[in-house]
């Protein structure tokens, strides 16, 4: 009885088109926001912030990026890792060329580079579709990875071949580098991720988002209705790569602190893909859920399994984690193939009719 | 019940006589398959033009030619007095040609509302940045179009499924949503490919009413493919009959109905 | 510069024909091995429209089972038979636990499920066999290990590894066998039907359960063969899993559903990659093999979006 | 009860597990042996604990964060990628990092990196040592003139690092160097590289390989019938499995080494007695005391000696991270201490200092006899003189690109 | 359900001869675990009967048929109540292919041809469960071709490229290839030219009378359906609201008005329907 539409009348289309038309949803979101902005900062340990929350948010952003392309525009991509890398390397270059630039500006600007590269590799999508398109994005993945190794200019000719993030300040507060407080970094990542999510949700609900979904659901019909495949697909590639680029930059600047090219390897692409699919293609909330599932669950298992009193070796924990995660992926897909977001939605639908079994 | 759709312009009267679309000597082949051979006919402004013929006669292919999905190997198409060359489908759409599909081609992952909104794509102007913040002009535009779409939803009596993903709808409603999507484009020429397949009588009557209303109220020209002879004979102004890719008859419903070739090839028994 | 790109490589080829032959042979062998991996993918894709991401780990798992059993004192041939049995069991389990509940789901969901399987098998495999690399029991299985050198011209030399020859022969036998099985039996037609539309296939009485168990088993055997061959080239470890990526451009080039496509695609990639790396690679500092195959496939796709032998993508309204 | 916490970042899973497992076993067993035999170090038990990284940088950060809270006295990241991430963090958190012969070479410069240690040698030391050994066989450095030396490497920061030094030396001594990069994804697919080797016919081959790249390279080398005694690997190419892949045909393959091979050392016997035979080790009997296992023992010994020397230096029993940093800086493993540890011939003397966090210790060559590694030739010094300027330049570069890199704020331990 | 219809229902059941080929008893279907679609449907098909299942869009006809042929699971639907007997045996637990093997095949709504297979290959997959040899299958194929000459012409085209009506013929022909005892036809007339519609029903009649095949057909074209069927059920919003012999249904006033379009004065013109009809439902 708690979760009901009844009695909530919308009198304007604005209200009807709001992100969270239901009061209960709005309350839920407010609670989550309070948790994220107040409770976590007040209570969390450094480990929780650096190893759980910050990467979770970064991955959520990357998953949203991929979701734009794969979930909303229907173009399968396996090149996310490389696009994240482009963001990271361009942010790195930007900071070394403009050492005094505001770091947030640099981050947001770096996304444009990955967007440009994304568009270039998106061009073949006009002809190549479905799984076959995966090859284009794989080509991007491996070619870019090779560039990260082979173009020393990208990493300022470091002997180590890696990019290392030095200390930067913003308004007198250290935001990057080892001296930055995990809390500061968490806040920046949280704001950027939430802000960009809001932008994306706007896009999705408007004309551009609808064009993406049209192309996804039936590209021929979309074209017959007047969607230009070129603009629709490339804009999806651009927005997606932009988000991934920013996520990649944040990953290095606010989380890892240094990165070798192998940090942007294909395994990263897959990691993000898992999050996107498992969370639910075509759902922003799903991206958060997917990121939480794929990132937090293994960490939690690693922490929890030994503390349950199982005295198991570190690698056994790893084996178990891998098996449990794999089994859970399959389990969730079987329970609800359309991802955690859909599972959540169905639960809500059930709640609406509760205590009756069906509506 | 009277559905009232307000349009800015008063309902234009049928101004027949002006040729909107002219097909000249068109032929279309797929490898060895001759889908269309040497067909000519025209569609006048404001009329309901039916295309009928046995299965595989080339009716759907004809529509595909008209809206640029197929490009005929031979022949010309004149649209509003201009000869069209290799027009892309989205260009046809932007010039006012809308259609529905024989095998429902809705956007399965989207709700009814979004599907119909998608018909408004071409009419929406606000650029990327406005879309991004979805505020001011962008929101106003969205709301304005939403209002138009709600009118169509009202008109088609599908209010109750506004927020349902179309994949879950029964077939008949899907067809109706598809019509709604085409209407949302406010087309000059509306191509309907078997809009009533899979409907029962009651629903066919409703659908007929919608089609006639669209034609009368908005002055939309309609090309209609349908296998229900009752519907075709009642609604259309002129009928063109295809068989094996060739035109075998063209004229008023009554003429066509009694044409022996048509009876042999298509109707079976005189209706 | 232009000379380096357009003339010099050919001059080199002409100058050392024996070496060119060797390069071609290596390309051939690599191509055959790529084709073997791709074959496993094709089988499953053909029969269910599932892109089996777990094929790579199945290769590792199959080979580890074989070697692991042998380490525990099981004679080589018995270990081989047991390994085949284990792959059969795996096929049965996958069908029961993963495929059956996910019938009629979009391909990306099924892809995801195979990724879940990958996670599981990685954990399970390391749990059972440990993470250390193991050497393939090439000799014990009666596979040849030596090499033969042919004198070509005065100074020329062509070295053929016997194991490579064996790999080629085995691959060809498997492809021929599978080709006959799938094209000449009614199952072949049923497979393609299943890949098109699960539900319709069910409605005409095709037993998806049985078909899937069969193809997963076939893919398991292919994985075992792949594991033996690749394992003989380096060793059997979890790193072998990444060679699955090699199959992607091959698959895409050949078309996801074509058994001959896997072979031809494999050979094109094999030859293209070796020749490209050896004659043109040095121009950019080498190591271009990691992406060359994808670029070859990409360029090819631009002209034929469904791959060489792939089924045409049907576009009709 | 008092104990000293030593986290060990290890990887027994993932594609590199083959090398990670013996190293992890070696480290664990050495500490187990100390705890059993001596009751720890200076009477304080060592509380050692593995954190599984899977050789993955993301998990490395997680490991670092999770152990940080437990007051570790030293961090051993065991992956170059993880080391690079940990260096700045540990410098701020004031935890010493010991990356034994891997990681950032420039960290040898103690002035810049007070918290980082990478004894006993850097990769540049290694590269120079191989050239030195080749020169010895060619009758001196002059003999290098006109020679062709091939360099096959994992195409990543690790494999690319020696290139500038090799190029320098090539210029200086007049040999020609050709490069054969192997992409990480192509580790097990090296036929192109070796075809190129066959065409170019280099006089010597040097390999900077890791994980599955090593056995594959050894096999491919035997396939093209490259003469194996001209084929050198860095110490990370010296796993037993790496060479065993080539079997008898790999006979003659040689790698650099800085730890003893085999079981004939008192320390190894003690481990056998107190740990392995007592059933407290994870090591498979057949793999006990293989080369990477012994290297793990060496690594653990460095940590233990750092702690011991910290205890001496600080006069405390339960030492802190700061103490261990000091301890490492003043550590001096001379012949006597080596003998006390039961490590005679197992290792060469090593001494670090405030300026030198590496030691640039002597190395020797091991040769594969078809079944096992055999010591071949004597301990010799790398060309520290050519390496030092490169290290200093790299450290300067690091400071510049990581500005504002903090000035050294810890006094030299004396 | 009004007591009257329940009564009629009971009688229909009571009358049902011993040889009932298919019987549904109080079936309830739920999609996605929350959407209740069938709310207790019971119906029977006598051996050798042609039973029509009528109802508006979304009434649940397709769902009923899929529940019988066990294709629901593939759509995440579940039969949560009731039972289904085919030849007297419960079949809910059987796999779809087992059901086909026992002689019950469904022609799915919306064609569902195998797009990449040619028309002929499509037809041959229909014979997948048959074990009676290539010769018999060949004869059967010829029979299908003689029913649908158009298919013979297009036999080597990929089904995905054929026209809608051709695909519909292909789907029906494919089902005939399995030599079934019972065919579940979902909207067979959809998209077919008028004379073909008649032909299809003639084929149904022929198979029924000559080979004793039983039919359950869901059809929107009530006119034709009731002409050929022996018995009919009318489904509204997941419930059977009316059933009876076809002839009786044809005379029912409500059926006449809503399904046959002949209210008193004969057929109305589609154009002259000037007001939108409020749907009258048996159940509010
Ligand atoms: N893209 C294509 N490739 C090959 N053949 C095609 C293609 N499109 C149509 N055809 C063939 O052209 C012929 C005409 O098809 P079309 O779809 O126009 O028929 P139709 O008149 O719409 O029939 P129906 O009433 O059954 O829908 C058919 O025989 C069909 O198989
Ligand atoms: N996969 C599904 N998931 C959720 N709801 C579904 C699903 N399939 C059908 N439904 C719902 O079940 C109801 C009955 O659908 P069904 O397709 O059985 O109707 P029908 O009588 O065959 O209609 P039509 O004449 O349009 O084919 C509809 O309200 C529909 O929305
Ligand atoms: Mg048609
Ligand atoms: Mg239906």
TrEMBL record, chain A:
Entry's Gene Ontology cellular component terms: plasma membrane
The entry's keywords: Cell membrane, Membrane, Transmembrane, Transmembrane helix
Transmembrane region(s): 27-49, 56-74, 103-123, 130-151, 186-204, 234-256, 262-281, 288-305, 317-335
Coiled-coil regions listed: none
Compartment(s) of residence: Cell membrane
Entry annotated with the keyword Cell membrane: yes
Molecular function (Gene Ontology), one example: branched-chain amino acid transmembrane transporter activity
Topological category with respect to the lipid bilayer: Multi-pass membrane protein
The keyword NAD appears for this protein: no
InterPro entries with a match to the protein in the record: ABC_transp_permease (IPR001851), LivM-like (IPR043428)
Protein's name according to its UniProt entry: Amino acid/amide ABC transporter membrane protein 2 (HAAT family)
Lineage: Bacteria, Pseudomonadati, Pseudomonadota, Alphaproteobacteria, Hyphomicrobiales
TrEMBL record, chain B:
Keywords on record: ATP-binding, Nucleotide-binding, Transport
Keyword Zinc-finger attributed: no
High-level lineage: Bacteria, Pseudomonadati, Pseudomonadota, Alphaproteobacteria, Hyphomicrobiales
Transferase is among the record's keywords: no
Protein name according to UniProt: Amino acid/amide ABC transporter ATP-binding protein 1 (HAAT family)
GO CC, any one term: plasma membrane
Single GO MF annotation: ATP binding
InterPro entries assigned: AAA+_ATPase (IPR003593), ABC_AA/LPS_Transport (IPR051120), ABC_transporter-like_ATP-bd (IPR003439), BCA_ABC_TP_C (IPR032823), P-loop_NTPase (IPR027417)
The organism's place on the tree of life at top rank: Bacteria
UniProtKB/TrEMBL annotation, chain C:
Membrane topology label: Multi-pass membrane protein
GO BP annotation list: amino acid transport
Gene Ontology terms: cellular component: plasma membrane
Keyword Membrane among UniProt keywords: yes
Compartment annotation: Cell membrane
Major localisation: membrane
Keyword tags: Amino-acid transport, Cell membrane, Membrane, Transmembrane, Transmembrane helix, Transport
Transmembrane segments: 20-43, 50-70, 76-94, 106-129, 165-182, 211-230, 250-271, 283-303
GO molecular function annotations of the record: transmembrane transporter activity
Taxonomy, superkingdom: Bacteria
CDD domains xref list: TM_PBP1_LivH_like
Family, as annotated: Belongs to the binding-protein-dependent transport system permease family. LivHM subfamily.
Name of the protein this chain belongs to: Amino acid/amide ABC transporter membrane protein 1 (HAAT family)
UniProtKB/TrEMBL annotation, chain E:
Alphabetical UniProt keywords: Amino-acid transport, ATP-binding, Nucleotide-binding, Transport
Record-level GO BP terms: L-amino acid transport
Matches recorded under Gene3D superfamilies: P-loop containing nucleotide triphosphate hydrolases
ABC transporter domain span: 22-262
InterPro entries hit by this protein: AAA+_ATPase, ABC_transporter-like_ATP-bd, BCAA_Transport_ATP-bd_LivF, P-loop_NTPase
Any one GO molecular-function label of the UniProt entry: ATP hydrolysis activity
SMART domains: AAA
Domain of life: Bacteria
Pfam families, A to Z: ABC_tran
UniProt similarity note: Belongs to the ABC transporter superfamily.
PANTHER family xrefs: ABC TRANSPORTER SUBSTRATE-BINDING PROTEIN (PTHR43820:SF8), HIGH-AFFINITY BRANCHED-CHAIN AMINO ACID TRANSPORT ATP-BINDING PROTEIN LIVF (PTHR43820)
Protein name as it appears in the record: Amino acid/amide ABC transporter ATP-binding protein 2 (HAAT family)
Organism: Breoghania corrubedonensis
